[in-house]
Design brief:
With 169 residues, the protein is of the alpha+beta class. Helix content is 44%, strand content 17%. The chain has a 4-stranded mixed β-sheet with strand order 1-3-4-2. β3 (133-141) and β4 form a beta hairpin.
Length: 169
Amino acid sequence: MFVEVVVVALTVSIVYTNPIVERAVDQSKICLAEHNRLRALHLNTPNLVLDSALTASAQKWADYLQNSNTFVHSKAKGYGENLYYSSGYPAGSDCVRASNSWYSEIKSYSYNNPTFSSRTGHFTQLVWKSSTKVGFGISFKGSSVIVVAQYSPAGNVLSQFKQNVMPKK
């Protein structure tokens, strides 16, 4: 029995002190804070909250993309999704860079013609007013990082842009 307890304790210790796992958890908190900072720039756009199911799904997809050397959206339905890839940057700012990269599409968004465009879809999903939950997956391989954000309810719903992509304050 003593051996079993030691093995279980050692396994738990390894899982919770894994630097890659800790880095991903820390990055999720940074992602959430940066998303909410950017959303706060817009009228009546509430903060997002982390969702454990979305986080697990996003992490699984980020790991799949990193390990398969592909970069495509998941086929799962029921949530919106943003993807980001970078390589060669210092560790620790991955989520800030991803969030700001997506948000930078605001320069191409027309509030006078609120609709979907592939040039603004990451931005509109990030600030989509009706999206209330989010999960982040961050996968590292060498100097490359993939960030996956999954949002619920999904944004970028045609005919709902005017009431969900609010102008800046």
